[in-house]
Amino acid sequence: MHQTKRINIIVFIAILAFNLLITGNAAAIAITVNNSAGQAADFTSIQAAVNVANPGDEIIVKPGIYEENIEITKALTILSESGNASDTIIQAADSSKDVFSILANKVSIKGFSIRGSDSAAGIHFIGVADCRIEHNILSNNSCGIDLYMVSSGNTLIDNDVSNGLTGISLGDSQNNTLRNNFISYCNSGISLFDSPDNTLENNTVSGNDEGISLIGESHGNILVSNIIKSNKKVGLHIYQTSSNLIYNNYFNNTANVESDQEAGKNIWNTTKSEGTNIVGGSYLGGNFWGKPDGTVYPGGVRDTDLDGIFDSMYDIEGSGFIDYLPLKESKSTVITVSNSADQAADFTSIQAAVYSAYPGDTILVYPSVYVENVKINVKDLVVVSASGSPSDTIVQAATSSEDVFSVTADGVAIRGFNVKGNISSLNSGIHLYGVEDCLIENNELFNYQGTLQNSVGNYTPASGSNSILNPGFGIRLDFSSNNTLSNNTVSYSNACILLRSSNENILLNNRVSNSSYGIWVDSSSGSILDNNTAANNKIGIYLKTSSRNTVIGSMAFDNSGSCINLWDSSENVLSNNIASNSSNVCVILHNSSENILSNNTVFNSNYGIWLDSSSNGNILNENRASYNKVGIYLKASNENVLDNNTALNNSQYGISLWNSTVNEMENNTASYSYVSILLHNASKNVLTSNIASDSSYGFWFDSSSNENTLSDSRVPNNMIGIYLKTSDKNVLTGNSANLNVKYGVCLNSSSNNTFKSNIVDSNSGYGVYILDSNSNTIYNNYFNNTENIYSEGKSSGNVWNMSKNSGINIVGNSFLGGNFWASPKGNGFSQTHPDADGDGICEAAYDLGKGNIDSLPLAGPF
């Protein structure tokens, strides 16, 4: 292919040189052509006129039908006398040849019907520049107009091309302009192959199999203001080409774009700027995307600021190619409403405007107080305050037994209103029933006039605001999906926002306060709650029997009962939220399983995070709980995973597992509490690599027996490092308990535990304190305290060594046996007693007192 290109280019250069040689300096003349009797003319055929013409001459063709194939090798202008292509027809004499073959620069052809080249082109450019083809009709040719082999700088304008394999073809041609052409009923409307930097503007490409194709090295082209519609297979086909700018086009095909991944490098919109766009809007941006069935993309998205550009970007047919400024077709009527004598308008009530509206219309409401209950049953209706501010456009309930706004049609937008009035317990300020794709934005409901600030305790209602709870709801959704509630402020309600049996909605940047429930999601799934603020409610954010929802980036504070509450709700995600200042609990899960709580901050409450009543299989990751009574609390909840959480300065417990089994705790940090980490009546839990420090108790196992494992954890700077009370059959291994004030480890009425491979050193009181504890196995530990052990009460049967066997012990020698007994002064038993055979075991047993004997004390340096 590349060899063929080189040969063609050489031929082109030779022809161009020949044309330059024969160009003369004679003055241009007009030559006439007519093949009808009775009209005088210079020639009866166009080719005869071409042959004798000099470069720059003008050939004027009178109406008629001319059967010929014409070759042009000099710069000429050929035009019909009438300027009417329908009465000046050139029919191919040989259907296997081009009707016009253009081999010279600066050729102009204007005003003809050109047809009948079944196997070639109506007009064929071969390596030429600066030609102009305009106001022609080309039909029934294999290719209407064919620009080939480095044809550049040519202009094709106002041509009608139809019924061919290809309407207009560019091959290896660049910097050409195609404008205002109409191409229809071809296999391919406009085809660019290895043709960069061309401009396609204001063309209509309709009814073809494939509308426009950009293939190969067709880079850097501009497609602007074209209508590409009703093409059977695809509107625009892009393959292996990039850096094309495609904007302000009208796409309306069953498949608008077909492309490979390389097409991701193309640009699908220009910067937003003033100017009338392809669908009559006031701004240029991206393209209009529609389908023949009337569908418009992106679906379910509104143009709330009425700029003619959708509020969300469009992922073009799910391809990953993005039009960031998709256009909205403006077919709507703006209906005005005012009940003030100072403002002329179409209607004096919102309801009257709704009755007269059609789908897609906009109702513009001027500032005033409107006492009415509004029912909206018109699809895609936008109801918006003219000022954009809820402060001056008030809708007051006329009757308490109806919703203030009742929405029963899809795609409705309500924006910028202050909704007031007392309503009954069954009704709402704004009620969506059985609808989707609605937008409720920037409204205030029920006289909330205070300010919410992003610091704790700074909620202050304005003087005179209504402090009586409205028995109804603020914004309520029933059986409604894919709606967006954004930037609304709702207060003094039974529930500010209620979703009931409503899935996959978006709640964004709403502020809810001073109500029984801030946001209540009931029997609803798949919704996103992002960056909402809930303050001074009984429950801030409440999920009841709801699954697969996401609560992210929200603030919930000063809620009396709970800030965030999940009840019988599973598979939800709570992430990056801040919950604080509840008199009860910041975040509580009740009988709620398989949820993910990640990177939340909870503080200043009785309980930070509480998993209650069979809340099983949840993941708590990188949460921060501080200045609560209990930081993280699991009660009767099993098989949860706590990973990388931080619990600091909680007055009673940092992390507490209460009547809970088979939980995993890893890499958590708990400090500055009465008990850093507490297990009460808990079994089969695994605690690994945690830090419990700077508290009265580091780890406290209370009545917790049966295979709890504490391993590889650090326990410094407590009063008592590790405390087992009435706790049996647990395993403590690989932990470090040091710098504790009273005891490193304390066993109180705890038996049959295994304590191995731990480091217990630098504790001020005793390393290990044993009280009424029997049959524990304690071996391969490193003790280095002023007093390593104290035993009292009825403690018997404790085993201080295992049988000698090979294995790396706590001080790095080759045999396991008992423990290493050291002293900060260097006079501990293991430091001073000989190891004659060098096996790392002292030759003598160590009598610890009160019947406790380490028969195989370890020897050697630590």
TrEMBL record:
Pathway: Protein modification; protein ubiquitination. The chain crosses the membrane at residues 7-31. The keyword Transmembrane applies. Gene3D superfamilies: Single-stranded right-handed beta-helix, Pectin lyase-like. Residues 61-193, 194-312, 365-522, 523-658, 718-844 form the Carbohydrate-binding/sugar hydrolysis domain. Keywords: Membrane, Repeat, Transmembrane, Transmembrane helix, Ubl conjugation pathway. PANTHER family: F-BOX ONLY PROTEIN, F-BOX ONLY PROTEIN 10. This is Cell surface glycoprotein.
